[in-house]
């Protein structure tokens, strides 16, 4: 091949060698960053209950180094890592009945950061007494709930009510807490929930069938923006059935989806609920964690997946502990999002209509971050005190053979009808709502009223 042939081929590596920039506003989450301040207005899970004991554990959340522990009275403390006396690490602290004692000079701190003792100082020391009275170790409030430990890390005068989602109360569900660590920015992990198309390729074609053959079908997309709730509805045809699968994001980081293994599009399913109830939590700018429950039973995924490896497959399509060769041959979500780099070069993306969900939720976060900087507090998932937050992540499969009409429009109309049905029943009590939707779906299928 001669020089002219090479020029004609229009290779563009040299022109595009410079790495595009990142989206600074939504990617930077560490203390005193605009997005970090935004995220600190919400409750986030920070650890599994099973990880916490009377041995202090070092964790990192929102770019802050912390120590989490359980006192001998079983009270959980989440405090700054370094003792305020001489900056020794409290990960080496000694747990006592009412707090954690620094290994270096014996200062004792309660779970809320109160300095209970400064034993090396003179008992009559006025400076020590004043310090104990006026100063506290940095600490955050925690709430243990169903195997996860949540914390609020924002200004205490702005602390919101702990949100209660209807997913907490779905009957006949067995919930298994799990965590998955990602070596990348939180936005890369969060994006996938608003990207229904990736399931068809990553989980159904590129890596073979990771869930079921039905996932490989490319469906009709519809996106919904409802306050701070974002829904991506992907309606597929699988032979004589129409499969409506709904991914869900409630800002800033609560996610749900349909089942991973309970539905394959080949048999009827009415309003099956999410395979996971999950939060994507920033560790720092370059790392994040998914803390979640895997949901198993009649309304969730099959009970045989109620294992550590089962939760990993539901979360990412593959188990996490694999060789490089295995990851390269059959990548899952972890490989896809981590392969973008620790922070994706967002300004180099070429977003398309199928990326609409990604575009609108990112845009909303930017707007909320900006508004907070102007003094306006961001909205919470619950609109008023005591609200149970209604969720919509689900999958429904209805027998609806092709008709002598445009099938793409036909199946999309079914998806729209299913979503409308969910929204209209949203204010009902959870049990009544589910039964109402299930009965309407059954009648719709039975009567062919699509």
In short:
The chain is α+β, with helices and mostly antiparallel strands and 450 residues long. The protein has twelve helices and 22 strands.
| Rg from Cα | 25 Å
Total beta-strand segments: 22
- What class would the helix/strand composition place it in? alpha+beta
Q: Uncertain spans, ≥5 residues at pLDDT below 50?
A: none
CATH architectural name of the largest domain: Alpha-Beta Complex
Q: How many distinct helices?
A: 12
Between the first and last Cα atoms, what is the distance in angstroms?
Answer: 59 Å
Here the CATH topology of the largest domain equals: Naphthalene 1,2-dioxygenase Alpha Subunit, Chain A, domain 1
Give the averaged pLDDT, no decimals: 94
The oligomeric status of these chains comes to: single chain
Tally of distinct domains: 2
The level 1 CATH classification of the largest domain is Alpha Beta
How much strand content do the residues show? 25-35%
- CATH homologous superfamily designation of the largest domain: Naphthalene 1,2-dioxygenase Alpha Subunit, Chain A, domain 1
> What's the overall geometry?
globular
**Main sheet summary:** 9 strands, antiparallel
What share of residues is helical? 25-40%
What does this 3D model show about the protein?
With 450 residues, this protein is an alpha+beta fold. It has 2 domains: 28-158, 3-layer Sandwich (Rieske Iron-sulfur Protein); 164-447, Naphthalene 1,2-dioxygenase Alpha Subunit, Chain A, domain 1, CATH 3.90.380. Helix content is 26%, strand content 27%. The protein is built from 12 helices and 22 strands. It has helices at 3-8, 24-27, 34-39, 126-134, 186-191, 197-206, 308-316, 324-329, 333-338, 356-373, 407-424, 430-447; strands spanning 43-48, 57-61, 64-70, 76-80, 94-96, 99-101, 108-109, 115-117, 139-140, 142-145, 148-152, 164-165, 173-182, 220-226, 229-238, 241-250, 254-256, 269-273, 276-284, 287-297, 388-389, 394-399. Strands 13, 14, 15, 16, 17, 18, 19, 20 and 22 form a 9-stranded antiparallel sheet that branches. The longest helix has 18 residues, at 356-373. The termini are far apart. The model has no long low-confidence stretch (mean pLDDT 94).
